[in-house]
Design brief:
Layout: E1 3-8, E2 18-23, E3 30-31, E4 36-41, E5 46-50, E6 55-60, E7 67-68, E8 73-79, H1 86-94, H2 106-135, H3 148-153, H4 158-167, H5 185-198, H6 227-242, E9 245-253, H7 255-263, H8 265-270, H9 277-291, E10 297-299, E11 306-308, E12 314-316, E13 318-320, E14 323-325, E15 328-329, H10 337-352, E16 366-370, E17 389-393, E18 397-402, E19 407-420, H11 426-441
Parallel strand pairs: 12-16, 16-17
Antiparallel strand pairs: 1-8, 2-4, 2-7, 3-6, 4-5, 6-8, 9-19, 10-11, 12-15, 13-14, 17-19, 18-19
Helix pairs in contact: 9-10, 9-11
C-alpha cells in the first residue's frame, strides 16, 4: 500500500494568512519534489510553494482564495507505488481526519484569544477610561495617544493592533466584522475613513473623494488595480499622513565616475555582474548612513525616542508589471561594488518575476528610487515610514559648468532626498545630500 503523507505550508517568513491565488495541481496528479503546488500573494510579493515530497495527489485541502500560514495543510500525497485500488486509497485519505480549507487567520486568532485571560483584569478599567477620554475634548474619534488597555483587551490580532497603533486608532471604538466580532485591518481602515468623512477626526482630515459617474462625459473603461498596487497606495497614503515630509534637491558631478564605470564594464561582465550606477549609489549611501547615523534610524512608535541601527540595509525600488516592489540589499556597508551589483541584479530579477521572498523585502533602513533609465530632472519620493529618508535619482544630463576660467561639459546627476522632518532638519538633509554628491564626484572618498 502507498503511504499517505501530508504536505504543509513551509516557512514563508513573518507573513501569516496569505491568500492562495492559484493552484497548480489537481487530485490524481503526479508531483515530484520541488514541483510548484500553489501560488500565494502577500502584501508585496507572489510566491510559489513547492512540494517537499514526491507522489500522487490524493486529496486537496485548500482552494483558491483560502488564506494559509506556515504549517497549514495543503494536500495529501500517496508516496511511492500504490498496490491497491485507487478508490481504497482515496477513502483512506478522506478518513484521515484532516481539516477542510485552512480557516481564516488561525494563528493570529489563537494569539489574540490566548492573550485575553491574562489581560482581563486590566481591560475593564482601562477600556472605560479610554472610552471616556475618547468622548471628551472635541469628540475626536481618533486619538494621538491610545490607551494601552484598549489594545490589550481588543478582539484583534497582533498585526491589526500594530496597524491601529500606527494610525492612532482606539480599538475599543471599532466594531469588528470578522469571525466572533474580531476586528480586522479593513475595520480599522473603515473607522478612519468614517471619522474623516464625519468630521470626527482632527482638522487635518482628508475629505472623501467624490464618487463621480465619469461615463456621463464620454466612454470609459474600468481596470482593477493589482493587489500590490492597492496595498502600495494604501501604504503611501499612510506614510504621507504619518510623517511631515520635505524634499532636498542637489546635483552630483559623475563625469569621472561614469568613465570609471564604463572602464570596468568588461571586468564586471567576466564576473557575471552588471555594474550599474545604482551599485555606486548603494556604496555611497551606505557610507553616508555611517557618517550620518540619524538617517540610519527610526522614530519609536510613541515618538519619544530615536532608534539608531547598527546595520545598514538599503531598499531599492524596482518597477514591475504588477507594481512597485522594494527588495533589500543587506549589510550594504560591508560589500564591494561587484557584490552590490550581483545582489542588486539577483533581487531585481526576482522582483520582476514576482519571486521575492518576504524576508527579502524586510529590514530596510533607507531606500533608493532611481529613474535614471527613464528621465526627469527631479521628483519627491515618499519616505517609507518607519524609515526617515529616501533618495530619488533622475537621469544624468551633460551641462556646461564654469570652472573658473571657462565653461566645460560635465555629467550631472539630479538627487532628491525626501526626509521625515520630525527626525531630520533642513541643515542635516542638505549636508547629507551634499556628502553623497561629493562621494559620487570623487568615488575615492568612499574608501576613506
Amino acid at each position: 500500500m502507498a503511504e499517505t503523507v501530508e504536505v504543509k505550508v513551509p516557512d514563508i517568513g513573518e507573513f501569516k494568512n496569505v491568500e492562495i491565488i492559484e493552484i497548480f495541481v489537481a487530485e490524481g496528479d503526479e508531483v515530484a519534489e520541488n514541483d510548484n503546488l500553489i501560488s500565494i500573494e502577500s502584501d508585496k510579493s507572489v510566491m510559489d510553494i513547492p512540494s517537499d515530497k514526491s507522489g500522487k495527489v490524493s486529496q486537496l485541502k485548500v482552494k483558491e482564495g483560502d488564506k494559509v500560514s506556515e504549517g497549514d495543510l495543503l494536500l495529501l500525497l500517496e508516496a511511492g507505488e500504490s498496490s491497491g485500488d485507487e478508490s481504497d486509497a482515496d477513502d483512506k485519505a478522506d478518513s484521515s481526519g484532516s481539516a477542510e480549507a485552512a480557516p481564516e487567520e488561525p494563528e493570529e486568532e489563537t494569539s489574540a484569544e490566548s492573550e485575553k485571560p491574562a489581560q482581563k483584569e486590566a481591560s475593564t478599567e482601562g477600556k472605560s477610561d479610554t472610552k471616556a477620554s475618547a468622548q471628551s475634548g472635541n469628540n475626536s474619534t481618533t486619538k494621538t495617544v491610545v490607551d494601552q488597555a484598549s489594545f490589550v483587551a481588543a478582539h484583534a490580532s497582533p498585526s491589526v493592533r500594530k496597524f491601529a497603533r500606527e494610525l492612532g486608532v482606539d480599538l475599543s471604538q471599532v466594531n469588528g466584522s470578522g469571525r466572533n466580532s474580531r476586528i480586522t485591518k479593513g475595520d480599522v481602515q473603515q473607522f478612519v475613513k468614517q471619522a474623516m468623512q464625519t468630521g470626527g477626526a482632527t482638522a487635518s482630515a482628508i475629505p472623501a473623494q467624490p464618487d463621480i459617474d465619469f461615463s456621463q462625459f464620454g466612454e470609459v473603461e474600468r481596470q482593477s488595480l493589482s493587489k500590490i498596487k492597492r496595498l502600495t497606495g494604501e501604504g503611501m497614503q499612510r506614510n504621507m499622513l504619518l510623517a511631515p515630509q520635505v524634499t532636498q534637491h542637489d546635483e552630483a558631478d559623475i563625469t569621472e565616475l561614469e568613465s570609471f564605470r564604463k572602464g570596468q564594464k568588461a571586468d564586471a561582465e567576466q564576473r557575471g555582474v552588471k555594474l550599474t550606477m545604482v551599485s555606486f549609489l548603494l556604496a555611497a549611501c551606505a557610507k553616508a548612513l555611517k557618517e550620518f547615523p540619524e538617517f540610519n534610524a527610526s522614530l519609536s512608535a510613541d515618538g519619544t525616542e530615536l532608534i539608531l541601527k547598527r546595520y545598514v540595509n538599503i531598499g531599492v525600488a524596482v518597477d514591475t508589471p504588477a507594481g512597485l516592489l522594494v527588495p533589500v540589499i543587506r549589510d550594504a556597508d560591508s560589500k564591494g561594488l561587484y557584490q552590490l551589483g550581483s545582489d542588486l541584479t539577483e533581487l531585481a530579477g526576482k522582483a520582476r518575476d514576482r519571486k521575492l521572498k518576504p524576508n527579502e523585502m524586510q529590514g530596510s533602513c533607507f531606500s533608493i528610487s532611481s529613474l535614471g533609465g527613464i528621465g526627469g530632472t527631479g521628483f519627491t519620493p515618499i519616505v517609507n515610514v518607519p524609515e526617515v529618508a529616501i533618495l530619488g535619482v533622475c537621469k544624468a544630463q551633460t551641462k556646461p559648468l564654469w570652472n573658473g576660467t571657462e565653461f566645460e561639459p560635465r555629467l550631472m546627476m539630479p538627487l532628491s532626498l525626501s526626509y521625515d522632518h520630525r527626525v531630520i532638519d533642513g541643515v542635516a538633509a542638505a549636508k547629507f545630500t551634499r556628502y553623497i554628491a561629493d562621494l559620487l564626484s570623487d568615488f575615492r572618498r568612499v574608501l576613506l
